[in-house]
Amino acid sequence: MVKLGQKAPAFCLPATAQDEVCLKDCKGKWVVLFFYVKDSTSG
């Protein structure tokens, strides 16, 4: 669990069928991360 003020761990996410976006690619830029905790679930 990441706590407030901690750096985010390194990760990559799919952007398109052939591409992905990695947090390291955004170094030096402002980034806003937003997670839909219950997106695509029945809860």
General description of the model:
With 43 residues, this protein is an all-beta fold. It has one domain. A two-stranded antiparallel ribbon has the order 1-2. β1 and β2 form a beta hairpin. The mean pLDDT is 84.
Short note summarizing the structure:
The chain has 43 residues and is an all-beta fold.
The overall pLDDT average reads: 84
As for the number of domains, it is 1
Q: State the end-to-end CA separation.
A: 21 Å
Order of strands side by side in the largest beta sheet?
Answer: 1-2
Residue share in helix: under 10%
Which structural class is indicated by helix and strand composition?
mainly beta
User: What's the order of the H and E elements?
Assistant: EE
Q: Please summarize the sheet with the most strands.
A: 2 strands, antiparallel
Which segments are poorly predicted (pLDDT under 50) over 5 or more consecutive residues? Answer: none
DSSP strand count: 2
Strand content: 5-15%
Brief descriptors of the model:
about 45 residues, mainly beta, two-stranded antiparallel sheet, about 0% helix, about 15% strand
